[in-house]
Amino acid sequence: MKRLGIPLIILASLALGCGSGSSRSDGLFGSFGAGSNGRTITIKNVALDQLQVGGDRPDTLDVEGFNAQGVRVFGPVRFPLATSNAIPNIPPEVVRLELDFLRNNGFRLFRADAGLTSSNSEIVPLMQLTAPNDSEFRITANGAGGFSLSRQIIGDAPSPSDVRSKLDATNMVFKGVCYSPAPINFSNKDAPAVGDLFWDSFKAGPDDIFDWGALFLDFYDPNVGQSRADIKTIRNMGCNSLRLYSAISYHLNDDGTFPDLSAPTTHRFSHKKFLDACWNNNDRPIYVLVDIPMPTECFRRYLKDAEDIPAGPDRDRIKAQRAAKIAWWEANLRATVEDLSSHPAVIGFNIMNEQDGNEWSHPNQGAGPDDQESQFFYAQSIKYASIVKGVDNTKLCGWAFHDSPALVKFASNFPTNGLKYFEQLKQYFDYYGINSYQKTSLDSIGGKGQPGSYADLPDNMALPVLFTELGWPATGHDNSNQLIDTPATQAATAQTLGTVVPQVYQNKLYMGCFYFEFADEWWKQDVGLPYTWDPGNPDGGRPNGFGDEEGFGLFSVARQGGRPNQDDNYITFGPDPKAPFGPKGPKLPFDKITGRQPIIDALKAAFSAVQDS
Prior knowledge:
With 613 residues, this protein is α/β, with parallel strands linked by helices. The protein has two domains: 93 residues, Immunoglobulin-like, CATH 2.60.40; 435 residues, TIM Barrel (Alpha-Beta Barrel), CATH 3.20.20. Helices cover 19% and strands 23% of the residues. The protein has eleven helices and 29 strands. The strands form nine sheets. An eight-stranded parallel barrel has the order 12-17-18-19-20-21-22-25. Strand 13 and strand 14 form a beta hairpin.
């Protein structure tokens, strides 16, 4: 064991257990577990400046207390880590304190175990560098066309506890939301971030690049006010997972060109702060499914610009540019999986979102024939899935595909010679991800005997279905065709949700769903800048009769503090760059979210009815 300039101790073997999910908040304080009759113990962290590993330092002290029988009777509670922390209200029966030293208020770096006597008023803990947690997942067939997802947490175990262990779980299902906190006037498809708003702050030359933590973390700062704390909101809705559309190691240049990944000045983005908050020291963790936003060129062989130009320098130049773009994104895919797969909050990766189409992924509505376009599409999909699994085969891998029975028909019947495409994908995929918006029934996807149903795939092709998107607009239109968001439109959407979402958990073929989406995004209609809240087209398959891409949120978004919608500055650095937070990151005041309560309540009810082991 490496010594850190401070005394270290070897902890006794701990019984496997965890903290109660209801006793800890996402903020700095949880349940104290005692009244005013308890003791105050001062923790003297005398070697605080030496507590670091791999460049990371703890910033939070997590405290739990146990009685002589090893039952937790105090905490967990959290405090900002200081050289001296006074812990009040510790019950007299506590004979041992367990102290976790956390990075970003959520990921354990060090641990100390301290015995207490009735005379204790101050202790100097002896810290040990802990084995970091990671998570491993496996999907297995359980007979009768069903599947089970098992989860194992490796690394140092949680504390002994009077609640059941979370170290190993079977029959875990996804109860999640799609999360993209895009501010008004921000497009997720634009450079440089391509939708990634989850990175850690860093210094680039003389400037600091600040994170978006004020949207998803839970803190109060006098310069910022109360953060929006989206992760806490997601956890309190009964979710155990969320899906990101982008969290990538390398961003594009501001002009959309590609930085040189071999250059020492090219920044490699990290995402520890966001993931640590999701992990929450394995107390009601939120597992994160990460999309890699691979572009169309990575899946489509045909490129009209090049094919229509006569052979020569122009065609060669266009093809070279396309090849360079594909290579850059493939390198970014590998780097991102390398960087994120070791975090316990990460459950896996989607290699794409909706990069499919009748011309290349399931030609002629699934009837074929197979051609160069489809061959390229599946070869690329298999290649990217093999990259993910080659880096870490303990994380899940799949794609997010449109709800398309034609895909199932095509990929289960072609190519005519050799392994079918679904057979090839099964070697690397753990699930088939589907973005679906069915209004009444999911039988067309997982019902027996339905044309193009996943339920009828033979064993050599069968995988579980994960609804990577499942949702409906909360909005309707008035007589002038403007978006409206009323109790009536919300009630109609809540009714549809209450009908369809429970079906996900009644079919053993399905591994759960991610509700689309957490909050409205004001760029989905793509009618140009400045983005406004734009109405969609008539669609009888939606609860309120319209396909309003910008009205799917469980929460609506709005400017506040008099800031206009047309303000397309997203970042502000504030007058004092040395302030602890200062108005940095999202421009203040950041967008306000307002819950559509009937829809939220319907989702919570659907999730709470499902046992989450």
